[in-house]
Amino acid sequence: MTQGMRRGLTSYGDPDFSLFLRKAFIKAMGLSDDALSRPVVGIANTFSDYNACHGNVPKLVEAIKRGVMLAGALPMEFPTISIHESFAHPTSMFLRNLMAMDTEEMIRAQPMDAVVLIGGCDKTIPAQMMACASANVPTVIVPVGPMLVGNYQGEQLGACTDCRRLWGEHRGGRLDAQQIERINERLAPTPGTCMVMGTASTMACIVEVMGLALPRSATIPATHADRLRSAEASGQFAAAMAVNGTPRPSDLMTKASFRNAMVILQAIGGSTNALVHLTAAAGRLGLKIDLAEFDRLGREVPVLVDLKPSGRHYMEHFHWAGGLPRLMHELEGLLDLTTPTVMGGTLRDYMESAEDVPSQDVIRTRAAPINKAGSMAVLYGNLAPRGAIIKQSAASPELMVHTGRAVVFESVQDLTERIDDPALDVTADDVLVLRNAGPRGAPGMPEAGYLPIPRKLGEQGVKDMVRISDARMSGTAFGTIVLHVTPEAADGGPLGLVRNGDRIALDVPHRRIDLLVDEPELVRRRAQAAALPATGAPAPDRGYAALFHRTVLQADEGCDFDFLVPGRSGAP
Ligand code: FES
After folding, report:
1. Cα 83 from chain centroid?
2. Cα(240)–Cα(510) distance, rounded to whole angstroms?
3. In whole numbers, what is the pLDDT of the chain averaged over residues?
4. Cis, peptide link before residue 79, omega less than 30° from 0
5. Nearest CA among 406, 342, 363, 380 for reference residue 487
6. What share of the chain is helix, strand, coil (3-state, %, to 5)?
7. Which residues, in sequence order, are CB contacts of 250 under 8 Å at separation 6+?
8. Using CA atoms, how far apart are residues 169 and 255, in angstroms rounded to an integer?
9. Taking Cα atoms as reference points, which of 448, 450, 524 lies closest to residue 481?
10. Residues 521, 511, 260, CA angle at the centre, nearest 5°?
11. Coil, helix or strand for 76?
């Protein structure tokens, strides 16, 4: 098989000349013929001044290169785009597919026998999973690792569950401007990803349990020396994969490993976003994430990890308690331990590497879980014919069965303008509804599903209400929040038919979300809506935005582009 610098030659009509030219240019970097004869390991550098979560990437690149060279291969660093949650307009999710395409095409375009992808901030590991599934070159994922915790007046602080909670306190008048400023300085005290069980931590756990990353690589803090040793070892394993040509992502990303990912997602109290990302990654390989199976697992798999936002602790505590390998012990019988890993063995090896930490209280036993049921439930009903998600482990138990009056917001903009209006007709028992915030409507399905409690209710001490939308929510958020209502309003979903004052019934135990309006009236409203002239912004007609608008799929298909999914329009 063609390896190293001979792979994927540039087309000049003469392969020998193509290689001659390639070597002539790369020798300008001072590389010797010996170096150029080695198997090549590409390293995707996702450092960016805009992405503090990836602040340790230069050090990781150095460590990975060391590992690759210790194993006798040639490391080749290359850039891809990098996405930070707070620096992506209109939302990071809008750019996830762009990063997936960039990464996939750079893996294909450049000569590499294996690749190491450094990811971390929420959309980066999902984009890399999608990319490596499609490129199918042997891949090791290196998560950047979580931040250390912050502290304010004796209380541990974590981005970004506490960002939202404390901002809510500020909005409610319980923290003044000076106090919230000081907190702002301490919420993210080091580089690394958010240290709660948000999307970044969840996706890092998922790639570890799927065998795409090394054991404990999800939890080692970003600033620890162990993080660099893990990166060095990742480079060594990638070099071995470059020589052997295996395992490929398609060997690792199987029906069984996706099922393991769903088990872990429930057990860690993971982010709702992970379900969309898993669906997208599986879709690249022609696999489906079965929401009904995910819901079934939720009834079987308890939440065992005591981390915010479902519990009390942070990622560094999870790490010192034994991390994923320890958790796998507690989940024995629920996980398929025969699935392969980048280290050449099986998931059982990861589990058996677990450290026993006698006094730890972060990873619970199945006899004493945080939540008997898993973290998420899938809801259906006349409001969500193709499903909706609720993170029940982060919701208020007293609101799990609730009927209330709808208070409707037409868009994120409308929400922003009216939510704090003192004249807004709203009570604590109402159901806040946000629409046109889905994959196509917003666009990009922003994390707007965490609708703020109206200021006047916040001031009365109201901390939670039932909230429903076709948007997503940050994995770090807390509340009784129904998300990913599918199909979205902008795609003709029934969320678009809700009117102020309608009654909405949420029944999580029976997995229902229903609009209590007669079917004939809904038919009438649907006909009326179809007859109305189109409102809102015109569809974009150029560039990435137009591509996004035309081809993005709904949440139950992972919000991927249709032409990137085998079997969908235009895809092979
Ligand atoms: Fe990057 Fe939270 S903002 S992981």
Report:
1. 12
2. 50
3. 94
4. no
5. 380
6. 40, 15, 45
7. 133, 136, 285
8. 44
9. 450
10. 135
11. strand
Contact, 145 vs 192, CB < 8 A? yes
Q: Tell me if 117 CB under 6 Å of ligand 1.
A: no
User: Does ligand 1 come within 6 angstroms of the Cβ of 328?
Assistant: no
Element (H, E) at 170: helix 161-171
Q: Dig out the tokens for 498 from the structure.
A: 């809700």
Q: Could you identify the residue written with the tokens 């502290």?
A: 151
Mean pLDDT of 106-131: 98
pLDDT given for residue 133 in this prediction = 98
Q: Which atom of ligand 1 is nearest to the CA of 120?
A: 4
Binding site membership of 204 for ligand 1 (Cβ less than 6 Å):
no
Report the predicted TM-score, pTM, of the whole model to 2 decimal places. Answer: 0.95
Q: Is 535 exposed, middle or buried (0-12, 13-18, 19+ CB in 10 A)?
A: exposed
Nearest residue by C-alpha to atom 1 in ligand 1: 121
Q: Is 194 in the pocket of ligand 1 (CB under 6 A)?
A: yes
What token pair was written down for 507? 């029944």
Q: Which atom of ligand 1 is nearest to the CA of 201?
A: 4
Ligand 1 atom closest to 159 (CA): 2
What is the average per-residue pLDDT within 296-301? 94
Pocket flag, ligand 1, residue 134 (CB < 6 Å): no
Count each helix (H run) and each strand (E run) in the chain, helices first.
Answer: 20, 14
Helix or strand or coil: residue 40?
A: strand
Residue 193 pairs in a beta bridge with: 146
What's the whole-number mean pLDDT along residues 111-115? 98
Q: Determine which helix (DSSP H) or strand (DSSP E) holds 561, and give its type and residue range.
A: none
Give dist(CA 260, CA 336) in Å, integer.
Answer: 7
Q: Which residue is closest in CA terms to ligand 1's atom 2?
A: 194
Fold held by 377-531: Glucose Oxidase; domain 1 (3.50.30)
Domain boundaries, the chain: 38-148+190-352, 152-184, 377-531
Q: Where are the beta strands (DSSP E) in 91-205?
A: 114-119, 139-143, 150-152, 155-157
Residue pair 259/57 in contact by the 8 Å Cβ criterion? no
The SS3 of residue 437 is: coil
Give, using CA atoms, the residue closest to atom 3 of ligand 1: 85
Is residue 281 within 8 Å of residue 129, measured between CB atoms? Answer: yes
Instruction: Note the pLDDT of residue 1.
Output: 62
CATH fourth-level superfamily of 38-148+190-352: Response regulator (3.40.50.2300)
Residue 534: pLDDT band with limits 50, 70, 90? low
CA–centroid distance, 128 to ligand 1, in Å, is: 16
Cβ-contact 364, 330 below 8 angstroms: yes
Which helix (H) or strand (E) segment holds residue 229: the answer is helix 225-244
Q: Going by C-beta distance under 8 Å and a sequence separation of 6 or more, which residues neighbour residue 494?
A: 382, 383, 384, 385, 515, 522
